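Below sits our specimen:

——
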Amino acid sequence: MMIAIEIVKPGGPEVLVATEREVPKPGPGEVLVKVEAAGVNRPDILQRLGNYPPPPGASDIPGLEIAGTVVAIGGSTHEAVRWREGDRLCALVAGGGYAEYCAVPAVQCLPIPKGLDATSAAAIPETFFTVWTNVFQRGGLKQGETILVHGGTSGIGTTAIQLAREHGAKVFATAGADAKAAACDRLGARGINYRTSDFVQVVRDETSGRGVDVVLDIVGGDYARRNVDCLAAFGRLVQLGLLGGANATINLGAVMKKRLTITGSTLRPRSVEEKGAIARDLEARVWPLLAAGIRWLGLALRPHVERWLVPLTALVGLGVAALAIGYSEATGKGTSDVLFSGQDQIGPVLAGSADYTVAALVLLIACKGLAYGMSLSAFRGGPVFPSMFLGAAGGMALSHAPGLPLVAAVAMGIGAMCVAMLRLPLTSVMLATLLLFSDGLEVMPLVIVAVVISHVVAARLTPVSAPAPAPWRPAGAGRPTGWPACGPAAR
């Protein structure tokens, strides 16, 4: 048996309950994955509300993407043979992700990119599959073109910005607040606060009246007409969502005059073969970018994740509500970790109340800070307080906690660097720099290597001073020679 989260009836977060289910058996061409983390997406909310039923044959358990370890192989197809028990992977699923085990078509699995943990990897499949097939396969975005992405700080938005940027496109992105527009800027887009600026006019002004080549829209409704106005000749409008409604009025004359293409798609109902083809394209074209890791003073391609760490005991009382609480305030997307503690199964952690989530984030940041501070102290033998201060500030900057402006995170990191420089010069500077320009615990090995190298370099460059001679004592005075120091004064 396994623990899973099921929807007992359409409604609010309280309808999500923990239950016991049979462990699924992988069929031909499938693998059974022990789930370590599951992504949280807007379709999960729609399914919970009763507005997005799973396709025929799919599990009624929500959850469209997972990361974990292969524990069984079902069948001997070519793709299934590729995987072995113990392999760690992430996968796109049609349902069933909010559980301890999930059976997945082998063709929809991809290796966890080098340098990413399971929580980050679980945030990849749904958005990366969706963006790749729509922006590049259907929208045909090419190097040197321009794209307008609506919902720039959503999971789809952050992914689209980064993939477009990595493929040489200029990106405009809309968001509903100045802070969110600034977040788009940091990802490499031109952020536009649609509440205070007309995105049509901004696009026209900054493209000299030409417009953009592709619009990726999750809104629909009244945006359709404005999207057509934004497009350049031979432009492509790709519709992914209908947050503003399914009905729209557009100027067909403009569509004809500018030779526009209007298209759209959904991912979940597609066949296993179609999803497998997208997976192979991603592995060939995008996975090398994800595995590239840190880029000094540059932008690395990474999923942007809001993490929730809530034990099952709290989950039962609070309800699983990752997308119901502050979803529009998050940057990126949500993931849940599946945690175990000895015989006590803590189960899928998929969020709770806002207060509980904030507490969990604080705990996560504190743990990161503790880890960095301890690594610094261990290798340099430095005083505890500056080390822990540096670690905590680095962890905070690293976590990009919701509501923490980047300026504040960087300021904390720089402040920590200055404090640490007073006592731990070379090591601290290198470590603090790593913390400020990296984005996850996956850089810990590099941090440790940098600390070791800087310690060796500092030891070679710093002259060793002879110890000061001990004060002269008359013969027989004080404790006998060789006796250890003791007593309050010695301490």
Notes: DSSP finds 18 helices and 16 strands in the chain.
